[in-house]
């Protein structure tokens, strides 16, 4: 493994104006490598390179099917390099190797999907009577700035980069300072598929330095951000100063409502994936379960069984799919989650299982289930971003919806029942951008994803996301005679 990783600006690998940062392996607590840190000057060079390529029309003038083929080839490049890429992702992020491989496959799937979509962004003609010919077209914004979180660095970069390129934008991407290394493969992919120098620029830097410089840069035309609410507000404020649109995906406190007629055995699988996949560091994690009081104890027994069945160890020791969980991304994220568990206990929560830091090197937290949670507790409202599930009770359908909708967030929600009317009613009433019925994470790259409330605005995934990357132009022609 390389010990020093550079940034990729205007087709060249370069050092950073802000020096270097250590990248730590959260599975061991040891230093993995050093990463160049960009400063505002580096950001400026990257944005100007992207603007140059955009203004030259290199991508936007292509016939969309050609652009789509380039985008698809990038996905194939990632799959061709999955072994080395997944290994580095596991080492820097902490997730099991089998999860890292799923993440790389998911990233490739975005390039496949948006590569396919490139030639579907069609305009329309609007009738204005015999003296006019009028049509509407969609054009790329220009320079798309993308600020990436550390929980799924490969998949999140793929999500925005694939859609931005498919629609003919050029990109400047700021990678997360905790997990910047695996993003280097996107630069290699851009070169391999023949994108011109400056079309894709990838740099790591501190949020308040390079991140702030990128979001405030006057030649950025559109911003995509995934991360915390406070940072989202800072980025939206910077975007407002330059009057550019942004897409914000800011996490959640998403709830599954489990009715007395739900398939409790099947729900074990939803617990497994919903809160322990990626050690719960998922914006759409199932971090609350709101269960009917008649099945509460039976469900808690099952969920505790799931949590206790998981083996927790460094990601590189987990090559095969199975009942395993890795480290959290850093000791400070782990300590923050552990502290939230202690604070919840002080407010009356019962730790049904887990809750402790593990007594081994690395950023490990036991898979945790908290019961006796009531809606006003901090743990019922604040995002933990770790393997910690809060269980609340309800007795009427209305009460369940009220609890589910009772946080400032609204990313996703779920309802588990065998009654179709009840499921449909809940789907109507849940204030969330996506509702899962009888399977947490049902859907895919094709289904639009994004938040209500403080979970953000704009949509990622699906055809819906394409409209974030294009602006509408109407042309009205007065005909002679
Ligand atoms: P963060 O929002 O601070 O960081 C996310 C990204 O934003 C990083 O690349 C960071 O460098 C950048 N950034 C930070 N400050 C910036 C600024 N002023 N201008 C521009 N960019 C800036 O998140 P974090 O500190 O890494 O994690 C804190 C919490 O955020 C987590 O505990 C979790 O609750 C939440 N989070 C959510 C997601 C998600 O997928 N929704 C992902 C990561 C973190």
Automatic annotation (TrEMBL):
The record ties this protein, via InterPro entries, to: Ald_DH/histidinol_DH, Ald_DH_C, Ald_DH_CS_CYS, Ald_DH_CS_GLU, Ald_DH_N, Aldehyde_DH_dom
- Ranges for domain Aldehyde dehydrogenase come to 13-475
Active site: residue positions:
249
Tell me the keywords, alphabetical order: Oxidoreductase
Q: Which SUPFAM superfamilies match?
A: ALDH-like (SSF53720)
Provide the GO MF annotations for this entry. aldehyde dehydrogenase (NAD+) activity
Main enzyme class:
oxidoreductase
Signal peptide (UniProt feature, chain positions)? none
EC number(s) of the enzyme? 1.2.1.3
The record's annotation in CDD domains points to: ALDH_AAS00426 (cd07109)
Recorded family membership: Belongs to the aldehyde dehydrogenase family.
- Name of protein: Putative aldehyde dehydrogenase AldA
Which source organism does the UniProt entry give?
A: Shimia thalassica
Q: Which gene encodes it?
A: aldA_2
